[in-house]
Design a protein that fits this description.
The chain has 556 residues and is α/β, with parallel strands linked by helices. It folds into four domains: 26-100 and 214-329, Rossmann fold (3-Layer(aba) Sandwich); 103-213, Alpha-Beta Complex (Glutamyl-tRNA Synthetase, domain 3); 343-461, Ribosomal Protein L25, Chain P; 467-544, Ribosomal Protein L25, Chain P, CATH 2.40.240.10. 25% of the residues lie in helices and 24% in strands. The strands form seven sheets. A seven-stranded mixed β-sheet has the order 10-25-26-27-23-24-11, covered by helices on one side. A seven-stranded mixed β-sheet has the order 21-18-19-20-12-15-22, with no helix packed on it. Strand 18 and strand 19 form a beta hairpin. Helix 2 (42-57) packs across helix 11. The chain starts with 10 loop residues before the first helix and ends in an 11-residue tail after the last strand. The chain binds one RNA strand of 76 nucleotides through helix 5, strand 6, helix 7, helix 12 and strand 21.
RNA sequence: UGGGGCGUGGCCAAGUGGUUAAGGCACCGGACUUUGACUCCGGUACUCGUAGGUUCGAAUCCUACCGCCCCAGCCA
């Protein structure tokens, strides 16, 4: 839909309201903390709109912070892509930060924890740690290294940093409670050793890297974040988040609040799966228009406004659900209906000869660019004796519910005259190859008297139109919940992309530019493909079809 | 069967003890229409997970039960 949804007071905004009222805070600071190990997707957009939206609506600010504590998975390409996506969505961060900016401070706080007897260097290897951890129903056992002296821990930790120990040989662990029913509190690792990695920000400076659970609360506190918003799976990490801040000398303690992540029907949203699609080349890349990535949606033709609108429309709660694709589609339809200039394009051309129309002669017709917004102006169309209409817009016979061209029947050519079909010319196999029609010269701009024309169809001049390729997209997956019963790859929709190479578009479209979006009347919204179009080669992506209460193509 | 969460019409989602339980999307009618679009009217459907209890009054409070999600990375 167009128009703004009056931003709903979701439970997080309610908490903020009361924090403001109680005087706990006078300004609100949030952050969007992606890990640069992949491209952003529509689920991230939900978080972006939440965090940046709050910063806009309250006196406050929002930082963009890369959670870059695992150089094995992260890349500079992803940080650049993420910055571009956030900006494209319409937001500007107050400050650009990296968790790696805080590595030295993080190290200092770790030393503090050691000095307080709250952290220790553990020599258990990964397998042993797992054994000692216990299970969901049994408590864990304390590490034999748990009671080392502070001096020894300090020495060992310093040597970990100095690179004296091999990967996996030791970790720095918090000293909390191996019997905690919350497994996250069973002496979680704070630092691990990783040699030989070049971190995209810090290079080879470090060979020990802090863990998320340790880094995140401190990064938030350093930045003065007031409300640290994250998804539900971090709910039982919150006690650890709080533990960290309660046990170091920092005077800021942000409040972590969790909300449910977005699930969308007929697509996949996890980074693991999206990465797999890209790596195995099941799609053309992160920006494949079928992908739910921001880059994919952008190339597909979605507008930032529509994505923001969608994110507001679905709300923010703690209950997990799966949103119907229709809600996203509705958002872009609503926006584009209001702003997209109208054009005509024939996707499956069928030649029509207007027998009583003078040959060698074109007639310039003015057509409005938008039925409800005159400020979008008009453009010229050229009507010629030979035109193309869509094959789906003709039938030799049909019942009266069919509002298109029928043998012996009349139909309006959009923005032009009424024509009657006199004959359907067929080839030897019986396939219709051409229609013979006659037009009524007295029907331009007004309806004929005494009879009713059953419908309106679009057309393009056979001599003035331009060839174009049109790509029709369908849902990425066949199943509403891909992978539910097995491998999600088995649920990929083999017909998610349909390429039409012989389309004919109206002359004006030859001047289409990347970034412009059009409505191809009676078909849907389209835009020039940003990657495969070139001068002289028109490639259009269908952003979304028009809503259709009839059933495009098929009917009965 | 440890811990943490969630359960309101097909899908989201308001609701924070007090008349007929918002709204959006979807769906079904109708109006309008040179886009089977848009827009505009109208409409359908709810045991508020279940069962008890407290109360004059419960989606809201209590108890039990059921269902679903997350957690045993030196990932985030």
């Amino acid at each position: 839909m167009n128009g703004e949804i009056n931003t709903p007071k979701n439970f997080i905004r309610q908490i903020i309201d009361s924090d403001l009222q109680s005087g706990s805070h006078s300004t609100i600071h949030t952050r969007f903390p992606p890990e640069p190990n992949g491209y952003l997707h529509i689920g991230h957009a939900k978080s972006i709109v939440l965090n940046f939206g709050i910063a806009q609506d309250y006196p406050g600010s929002c930082n963009l912070r890369f959670d870059d504590t695992n150089p094995a998975k992260e890349e500079e390409e992803f940080v650049e892509a993420i910055k571009e996506d956030v900006r494209w969505l319409g937001y500007e961060w107050a400050e650009l930060r990296f968790a790696s900016n805080y590595f030295e401070q993080l190290y200092g706080f770790a030393v503090e924890l050691i000095n307080a007897g709250k952290a220790f260097v553990c020599d258990l290897n990964p397998e042993q740690v797992r054994e000692y951890r216990g299970t969901l129903t049994e408590p864990g056992r304390e590490s034999p290294f748990r009671n080392r002296t502070i001096e020894e821990n300090l020495d060992l930790f310093k040597r970990m940093r100095a690179g004296e120990f091999a990967d996996g040989s030791r970790t720095l662990r918090a000293r909390i409670d191996m019997a905690s029913p919350n497994i996250n509190l069973r002496d979680p690792a704070l630092y691990r050793i990783r040699h030989g990695l070049i971190h995209h920000q810090t290079g080879a400076e470090w060979c020990i890297y802090p863990m998320y659970d340790y880094t995140h609360p401190i990064s938030d506190a350093i930045e003065g974040i007031t409300h640290s918003l994250c998804t539900l799976e971090f709910e039982d990490h919150r006690p650890l988040y709080d533990w960290v801040l309660d046990n170091i000398s920092i005077d800021c303690h942000p409040r972590q609040i969790e909300f449910s992540r977005l699930n969308l029907e007929y697509t996949v949203m996890s980074k693991r799966r999206l990465t797999q699609l890209v790596q195995e080349k099941r799609v053309s890349g992160w920006s494949d228009p079928r992908m739910p990535t921001i880059a994919g949606l952008r190339r597909r033709g979605y507008t930032p406004e529509s994505i923001r609108h969608f994110c507001e429309a679905i709300g923010v709660t703690k209950s997990e659900g799966t949103v119907e694709m229709g809600v996203l589609e509705n958002s872009i339809r609503g926006h584009l209906d209001a702003i997209a200039p109208r054009r005509m394009a024939v996707l499956d051309p069928l030649k029509v000869v207007i027998s009583n129309y003078p040959a060698d002669q074109g007639e310039v017709l003015q057509a409005g660019n938008h039925p409800k917004d005159d400020t979008l102006g008009t453009r010229e169309l050229v009507l010629t004796r030979e035109i193309y209409i869509d094959r789906a817009d003709f039938r030799e016979e049909a019942n009266k519910k069919y509002k298109r061209l029928v043998l012996g029947g009349e139909v309006r050519l959009r923005n032009a005259y009424v024509v009657r079909c006199d004959e359907a010319v067929k080839d030897a196999s019986g396939r219709i190859i051409e229609l013979r029609c006659t037009y009524d010269p007295d029907t331009l701009g007004h309806n004929p008297e005494g009879r009713k024309v059953r419908g309106v169809i679009h057309w393009v001049s056979a001599t003035q139109g331009h060839k174009a390729e049109v790509r029709l997209y369908d849902r990425l997956c066949k199943s509403a919940e891909p992978g539910k019963g097995g491998d999600f790859l088995d649920d990929l929709n083999p017909e998610s992309l349909q390429v039409l190479r012989d389309c004919i578009v109206e002359p004006e479209l030859a001047r289409a530019a990347v970034g412009e979006r059009y409505q191809f009347e009676r078909e849907g919204y389209f835009c020039l493909d940003s990657e495969d179009s070139a001068p002289g080669r028109l490639v259009f992506n269908r952003i979304v079809s028009l809503r259709d209460s009839w059933g495009k193509g098929g009917d009965e």
